[in-house]
Fold:
Amino acid sequence: MKIVTKLTGKDTLLLLLYSPGVLNDPNEKIRGRTRLVKMAFLFKEEVYPKFKFDVENLAEFVAWKFGPWSEEVYSDIEFFKSIGFVETEIEENNASDLTPEEAEEFEKWEENISLTDYATDEYQQEIFTLTSLGKKYIEDNKVFESLSDNQKAGLKEFKKKFNGVSLFSILRYVYEKYPQYTLKSEIKNQILH
Structure:
């Protein structure tokens, strides 16, 4: 079987969604854009180099008000939704229940898609999963199957670790391990306190 040696940022998102995790089921859901963005960041920083893939069009991350952030990841999510590869369930939350990062990223997302005139105090957390079309793409193109057993196990452990903990735990991990991405953070003291 051919071993994958080159992935794109878009492939990364599809693999993160397709991979089993805490429940050991393929296509385990990922709750929230903030979690998905941070998982894409951590995949790039920690998993990608170990897999020894060729780098091709991986998302760029910048230090932002609440840690690493990528416009490309947001665009890729919307692209996959528009072609029917990714679907979302909506979970209503009161905006006061959010971490500051979730609220800020939601507001930024509203700005980017011109919804500011319709902004409310309700935060709609998206829960991401691949559609049958997205799964078919992964399976037909053997994107997951062509990973080595070690790569599959590493990806599964990664998803299990970061999909199975609170968002605050992920943020704390990112802030402690990647301080260069917290230079512009407005919540650094709250996260590291």
